[in-house]
Amino acid sequence: MRLQEQGAGRLKGIIVLLFIAAIIYTGIKILPVYVQNYELSDFVRNLAVDATVAYPPATADGVKDQIMRKARDLGLPITRDDIQVTVGRTVTISVDYRVPIDLTFYQFTLHFTPSAKNTNLT
Q: Domain locations in the chain?
């Protein structure tokens, strides 16, 4: 009887360890993508402010180029078509992109939409 209890306890321990390992593995795969998105979002917010007051005035293509460089530095799969920019008295930037996640046993896609808007009040 006691051997059966020990075997069941060990099995529960192994299952718990496997569950914890799966959570850690998933976190290692997903967390960096969220950090990269946060960095891109922060960059987009600052870029909207800078582009509003830039001299010479910022252009939509120039803003897109800066975002593309940042995305490349972060390793994010962003294309120029994923970026929408309007420049004038108000600068509006929006990025809509997806990042595929492969957990070996399960694949899915994370969808991000960082954006920013800033108006020159002068």
A: 2-119
